[in-house]
From TrEMBL:
Record-level GO BP terms: enterobacterial common antigen biosynthetic process
Membrane topology per record: Multi-pass membrane protein
Molecular function (Gene Ontology), one example: O-acetyltransferase activity
Transmembrane domains' residue ranges: 21-40, 52-71, 91-109, 129-146, 158-179, 185-204, 211-233, 239-256, 276-298, 310-333
Family: Belongs to the acyltransferase 3 family.
CC annotations in GO: plasma membrane
Cell membrane is among the record's keywords: yes
Protein name as catalogued: Surface polysaccharide O-acyltransferase, integral membrane enzyme
């Protein structure tokens, strides 16, 4: 596997790249940790417990959206407004291509209708992660308006924190998503993600994190999501809307104020972080395809193992294996000059 090297890593934010790397690994773990089946031993978690623990990684999409808004605003500050539409069209190409690929792979052609094509395969329900594109398309079209609104509240960041927690608490615990069309739309409407986008925009102008937490606290912060689920029993259909997810995401994002640079990271580790951070969009698009192909092969072979700790080891191996396969495929796609299909 070849890992591309940037000419000048000093121009990149190591902290942002690390967060993007952790988040894309979290995405792949959520989607593909089940790839290699196993028979639980007495020392293993059962599948239900594994599904519970996977929820700790639900910070991934909020972190991506915050960082996306941060860099969008940085670009706007540097180059001026007007690049949103160009980015929209650039993102539309991989969206349409990969949506077509997954449509051919998973569509039920015997019961297919025009309504199903539009309501499922093109609006965020067609394949794992497609909804992320739908969210970005809305945000890109509205970015100039959102940033103007955000900048009016630059001095009220603590109030934004509090209102955001109350907002997510309300829509989670008020059975909001059980209301007809609201439930069908799920968390695809852009306004559910506004707190992350607004805070990302504001962070491009000044440090909005007036708190500094020990590294250990940042590392274990995803446990807050599990604690909320375990004790408060929220509905999990729209788990990204949990207040615990918002708080955890902020704690993790606060590490962006770190002065860590690539010079402080061992070169081989830095290259791996940079590759994963550079290829997040490609991995996002490709990991469902890799999982579909490998799952089929695993079933045909009849692969299954049992050993103490398999419930922990195999999901981690699955995640690394899928990401490695994605990077190999991304490099191949770029070599045949189709990089626009996988480029960030």
């Amino acid at each position: 596997m070849t890992i591309p090297v940037l000419k000048d890593l000093s121009q990149r934010s190591a902290s942002a790249d690390i967060l993007k790397t952790i988040s894309i690994l979290a995405v792949v773990f959520i989607h593909g940790s089940h790839l290699f089946p196993f028979s639980p031993s007495n020392l293993d978690f059962d599948p239900e417990n594994l599904d519970f623990f996977k929820n700790a990684f639900r910070f991934c999409v909020p972190v991506f959206l915050f960082i996306w808004a941060y860099f969008m605003e940085k670009t706007t500050i540097k180059k001026g407004a007007g690049n949103s539409l160009a980015r929209f069209y650039k993102l539309l190409i991989p969206f349409m291509f990969w949506s077509s690929v997954y449509f051919l792979l998973i569509a039920n052609f015997k019961q297919l209708s025009l309504a199903a094509i539009i309501s499922k395969h093109l609006t965020g329900y067609g394949w794992s992660g497609q909804y992320y594109f739908i969210i970005l398309f809305q945000l890109l079209l509205l970015f100039s308006i959102i940033r103007r609104i955000a900048l009016r509240f630059e001095r009220f960041v603590p109030i934004i924190y509090i209102l955001s927690i109350l907002f997510y608490g309300f829509i989670t615990y008020s059975h909001w998503f059980q209301i007809g069309i609201i439930g069908k739309l799920s968390y695809r409407p852009f306004f559910y993600w506004m707190p992350y986008v607004i805070l990302g925009i504001l962070y491009a102008h000044r440090n909005i994190f007036r708190f500094s937490l020990p590294v250990a606290v940042v590392v274990i912060s995803p446990l807050l999501i599990l604690i909320e689920i375990y004790y408060l029993h929220p509905p999990l259909e729209n788990i990204y809307m949990l207040p615990g997810v918002f708080i955890t995401s902020l704690v993790l994002l606060s590490s962006m104020q770190s002065k860590l640079t690539y010079e402080n990271i061992p070169p081989h580790v830095g290259k791996s972080i940079q590759a994963l951070a550079n290829y997040t969009l490609g991995i996002f698009c490709l990991n469902p395809l890799i999982i579909i192909i490998l799952s089929s092969l695993v079933k045909r072979v009849g692969f299954s193992v049992q050993f103490p700790g398999a419930s922990i080891v195999l999901p981690l191996i699955s995640t690394v294996f899928i990401c490695s396969a994605c990077i190999l495929l991304i490099n191949l796609i770029k070599k045949i000059r189709l990089g626009i299909l996988v480029a960030n």
